[in-house]
Amino acid sequence: MALTAVAGRVWCGWGCPQTVFLEGVFRPIQRLIEGSAAQRIRREAGPWTVERIARRTLLWSIYLVLALGVAHVFLGYFTPIRGLWSMIQAGPSESPEAFAWMVAITGVTFFNFAWFREQTCVAICPYGYRCSRCSQTRTRWSSATTRSAASLAPGAR
Predict the structure, then answer these.
(1) Apex CA 45: angle with CA 53 and CA 61, to 5°?
(2) How far apart are CA 32 and CA 40, in angstroms?
């Protein structure tokens, strides 16, 4: 927390695997396939077209392949790589536990990066949760006088 007070959220921006994967791998692929944020918002507001379905299918297919890669690398931490390669070649029936873990990790990774994204930082990460509470202008320990001038404007809540 002291580092956050001095340098801001350094961990969240540069060290957190969630941010590194999201901003370094998944979001650039999304920009490449679906365009800029303005283009994505405009496309999302419109109807489902063949182009939109094709873009989303391509994007999620790539995300699924990446999630499979992450799952296999993760399993490689617990199983020797040669043993993991043998399990992959033998098929799921030969090692159902490893296959179940691979499916679960793939599913969680895909869900996280295809949909949940930054919500992970707010809802799951204890560091992000604590830091966001430290930077609020109105907390349990603050008084009403610490609110910003904008929040005191007529009609603001």
Answers:
(1) 25
(2) 11
Distance CA 31, CA 78 (A): 34
Q: Has residue 40 got a pLDDT over 90?
A: yes
Domain membership of residue 156 (yes or no) is: no
Contact assessment for residue 123 and residue 132, using Cβ atoms and an 8 Å cutoff? no
Q: How many domains does the chain have?
A: 1
Quote the tokens at residue 23: 């901003």
Query: pLDDT tens, 89-131?
Result: 999 999 999 999 999 999 999 999 999 998 888 888 887 767 6
- Whole domain around residue 12: which residue ranges? 2-134
Give dist(CA 59, CA 34) in Å, integer: 8
Query: Residue 153: inside a domain, yes or no?
Result: no
> Residue 152 and residue 156: Cα distance in Å, rounded?
6
- Rounded distance between C-alpha atoms, residue 152 and residue 157, angstroms: 8
